[in-house]
Structures are given as structure tokens and as C-alpha cells.
Amino acid sequence: MNFVVPDFYPAAAEIFVAVMALVIMLASTFARPIARGLAYTLTQLTLIAAAFITIFTMQGEVVYTFNNLFVGDLMGDFLKLLIYFSMAAALVYGRGYLNDRNIDKPEYYLLALLMTLGMMVMVTANHMLPMYLGLEMMSLALYAMVAFDRESVRSTEAAMKYFVLGSFASGLLLYGMSMVYGATGSLEFSGIAQSIHNQAANETVLVFGLVFLVSGICFKLGVVPFHMWVPDVYQGAPTAVTMVIAAAPKLAAFALAVRLLIWALFDLAEQWQTMLMLVAVASIVLGNLAAIAQQNIKRMLAYSGISHMGFVLLGLLAGVVEGDRHFALNAYSSAMFYAVSYVLMSLASFGMVILLSRAGFEAENIDDFKGLNKRSPWFAAMMMFVMFSMAGIPFFVGFFAKLSVLQAVVAANYFWLAVVAVVMSVIGAFYYLRVVKVMYFDAPVDTSPLKAAPAEVRVLLSANGLAIAALGIAPQALMSLCAYALLASL
Asked: Tens digits of per-residue pLDDT, 267-315?
């Protein structure tokens, strides 16, 4: 058997990030006095350089390499660019927070970079093995980051819950992959799709495997009934880590769902549509109702995130109507647009929580936002933009994200789904508007001006809030980009 040298060019960004992770590890070890600042700087430079490498290696067509284990396409490249941005923003937001609590250590940035590498592998996998390896690399780094504050019992407890439940979900996913392999004789997505299309697969085993795969995907998205880890981990983790969990991994989980369900198991759409339908409705209902009762804003945002991921699943399940794939692109691009919009909103919301926090004080309760308008009218306006957008109020990006998904659902003739989603969105607007009411109409508990946050945090948070408003006024460019990336990849 002759060994064929793979084409390394499409995977240049992944190789670069892996090498830089080793460089940062060695540099942090041998330069202890300046390790903290050095690791942060090198990590940010790595993310920026990886973005340039990804842009320059885009080929505009689907390219396979490493014996078809790796796929280079526009969807993967676009999601990788968003992952770089999300991680870089989360590190900028979180650095001062970590420093105030004496946990700003080089190992944190190394874990963040390894997590990024895992997500990159996930979004470019064309085979179940690299998909699973990328997932585990991301997950293991996240478990360690949640427990990074070793003096905090709450963080350690959250990490244990996350680790145990995450291991269970990984087992479900791996078992589902093994059953699909047993039914089709292939782990490569195109091979699985071909076997199902030719009716050469054992359908009973395949459907059982599909159930396990959907369960694993649902856990990574944090949707009902695999949501039990989300509020506890969001609350227990340091806020800087909560922001990381709430942002980029959602993009990687979206890629996981697209690669597995649409690339590999598209001919089983009728089966997984029904599963996603039940999960999506349960997530939207439970997420919105449970969020109303929360006084802790991190738990409120956790339940809010569950309902938002339910909307993403609505977009995915609306792609095929009674075997007709005519509406597929519109539905999947609406789901992708929603995921991107949610990441943008999530970064800004947790950025505000970090901005109000200080050494020895966590701004975790909704009451901590009382009278924010009197302390800082500008950042109160930024938080208002975020809350209005998450509630789906015109004209912010969240409104158009919800509208695009609902249009896809109605086009797929699931009118009752659209009605449920709209009703629950109206009910859910209560807890978002409650935060706005507290900021503008309640007397402040603390009348002192906001602490002098680093300039880069204030600038980034302002840009983040304004982007949410700007994309609400002109969302078409981002929508078209999502549609084009999927059209060139599917």
C-alpha cells in the first residue's frame, strides 16, 4: 500500500494553532516572570494570525484531504473565523476579571487555545473519528476551565457536574457513531449518506444510532432534556469562563449538527425532524418559563440560552418538507444566522456582568443592575440593546434572527410550531424587560460610578452593543453570508 502525502494547505490554520499551543506552553514554562502577559499576548496573536491564514487558504470550493478525514469548505471557514472572533473577544472581556481574582494564569490561555483547536477540528471534520476527537479536545479544556478557580467550591462542583454529564453525553455520541458504523459500514459522512441512499444499511440499527447521535448533539447545544448542566455550570463557573461556554461552542455544536444530520443522515430527515421538533418545543417552553423565576442573571441567561438553542433547532428541522428539499438552504441559513446572532448577544450580556463585577464582588443578581442608568447611561443603553435583541424586539439583530427562523418554519407548514415559538417569545420578553426596568426605573443600590474598566473592554463592549443594533438595521449582509457559505458547502 503506497502512502499518499496529504495536502496540508487546507489545514494550515489548524496546524498553526496546534504548533502555537506548544510554543505557548514552552514559553510559559521557561519565562515564568512574564508568563501571564506573554501567554495572553501570544494567544491573541495566534487567533489573529489563524484568521488571516484561514482567509488566505479559502478556496471557494469543497476540498478533501487527509484521506477524506478533513474537509475544507466555506461553511467551515466562516465558522472558524467566527470562533476566532468569539474566543478573542471572550479573552479580552475576561482578563481583568481573572486578574482581580488571582486566577489570570498562562494555563488558562493554553486551555483556551486547545479548546479553539478542538472546535476547529469539529467544524472541518468529514469523518466521525476526527469529529469526536475535536469534540473531546474542546470538552476536556472546558471542564478544566470551569474548575480553574481552585479556591472556589462552587466552581469545583460545577466542573464535576459538567464533567460527569459531559462524559455521559460523549458516551451516547460515541455509541451512536458505533451503531451507525455497524449499520452502514462507514464512518465517513459521504460514505454513510451513500449507504443510506442506496438502502444498503440496516435501518433498525441505524435509527437506534440516530437516537444516540441526536442525544449527544442536544447535550452539546444544551437543550431539553439534556439541559440539566447548563444553569448550574453557568452559575458555578467564573463569569469569564461562563462567557466562553456560552459563545464559541454553540458554533461548533451547530457545525456538529449540520455535518452529522444534514451531510451524513439527510435521507433520515423524517426521523430526526420529529426528534428535533419535540426537543425544540420543550426547550423553548421550559427555557422561557424557568428563566422568569430566576433572580441570578447568569442562571437567567442560561435558561434563555436553552430557549435560543431551541430556535436554532427549529431552523434545522424546517429544511425538508415531506421529502421536498426546496426550502433546505433557507432554513439552514436561518439557523446559522440565529446561532451567530446569539453568540454576539451572549458575548455582550456576559461582558456587562463582568463590567459590573469587581474584586470580591460578583454582579450576578438582577438587583445588581439597579439604577445602572444613573451610574453609566452609555453602558445601560448597551445592556438595553442586548436585552431588546434577545427578546426579539425590532429593530435589533435578535428580531431578524427569530423572524428568519419563523419564516422557514411557516414555509415548512409547521404553523403550530411558529405559534408556540411566538407565544413563548412574548412570555419570555418579560424577564428581559425586567432587567431594563431595573436599570432605568429602580434606585441604585450602589451610587458610585462604574469602576474604571480597561479601555479595550469598554471599547469592545461598546462595539458589541452597537453591532447588535447595526445588524438589526441592516441584517441582510450577514444573512446573505450565511446562505452563501452553506450554498457553497452543502
From this structure: 888 888 889 999 999 999 999 999 998 889 999 999 999 999 999 999 9
Q: How buried is residue 100: exposed, middle or buried, by Cβ count under 10 Å (0-12/13-18/19+)?
A: middle
pLDDT at residue number 433: 92
In this prediction, residues 375-399 reach a mean pLDDT of 90
Cβ neighbours, 10 Å, residue 336: 29
pLDDT for residue 38 is more than 70: yes
Q: Name the β-bridge partners of 242.
A: none
Angle between helices 106-123 and 248-257 in degrees, nearest 10: 20
Range with lowest mean pLDDT among 296-305, 432-441, 446-455: 446-455
**Contact of 309 with 252, CB cutoff 8 Å:** no
Q: How far is residue 338 from each of residues 198, 349, 482, measured CA to CA in Å?
A: 34, 16, 10
Residue 161 contacts residue 233 (beta carbons within 8 Å) = yes
Tell me which residue of 483, 338, 316 sits closest to 414, measured CA to CA.
Answer: 316
Q: Which residue has the cell 427549529?
A: 314
As a whole number, the mean pLDDT across the chain is: 88
How many other C-beta atoms are found inside a 10 Å radius of the C-beta of residue 324? Answer: 10
CA dist 86 → 2, 118, 311, 437, 484 (Å)? 42, 14, 21, 29, 21
Total-model pTM: 0.93
> pLDDT digits over 332-355, tens only?
999 999 999 999 999 999 999 998
Name the residue among 165, 166, 160 with its Cα closest to residue 138.
166
| Whole-number Cα distances in Å, 164 to 83, 171, 224, 415 | 26, 11, 17, 38
Count of CB atoms within 10 A of residue 65's CB?
Answer: 18
Residue 475: strand, helix, or coil: coil
What are the φ/ψ torsions at residue 64 (nearest 5 degrees)? -110, 145
